[in-house]
Write a structure and sequence with these properties.
about 70 residues; about 0% strand; mainly alpha
Length: about 70
Amino acid sequence: MTSNKKSRYTPAQARSAKKYINEKTDQITIRVPKGDKSYYKAIAEKNGESLNAYVIRAMKYLNEAENLHKEK
């Protein structure tokens, strides 16, 4: 049985999105213990964020806090 599931993007849109991602973003992979991903994802969703946005915000916050501590 084959599925003829339609993409929500045209092939041109998919190529354009892939090109944008490759040119404008870097990829970071993190590993967490089993079960932790769903925990962090739930926290992110409570804050109305994607897991990606939550992790980026957390990294920026931690970096700012560490820099403030070093300046004192």
